[in-house]
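Entry 14. Structure prediction run on the chain below.
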Amino acid sequence: MPAFALASLRPTQLNEEILEYIEKVQSTFAPFGGRFRVHGAEPEVLEGEWPGSLVIVEFPDVERARAWYASPAYQEILPLRTRNIEGETIIVDGVGPDYDAARTAARMRAARG
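Output returned:
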């Protein structure tokens, strides 16, 4: 089942460290099967507030997403971003191709009693 690393990043002044991070980050995904799905897009906000840009990286599974984040290659460049850009980063399991929200609701309804 796919997993995703998501980052919500606040606007900042572009500098050399950020550019170096951007140049190097994609190569850290390869050993873990990761690929950009969204990179730095400004979301169209339909509800609430969203104070920045969005990054989504897809991995084949949550174990590989975690392994990428903990990898020496990524940890080496991570400070280039964290010193310069505020934001949050999460890893989340995705759903498989046969996922059906109605079946999930039925299980939830049955568990509720």
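The helical segments are 16-29, 62-70, 72-82, 101-112.
Filed with the rest of this week's runs.
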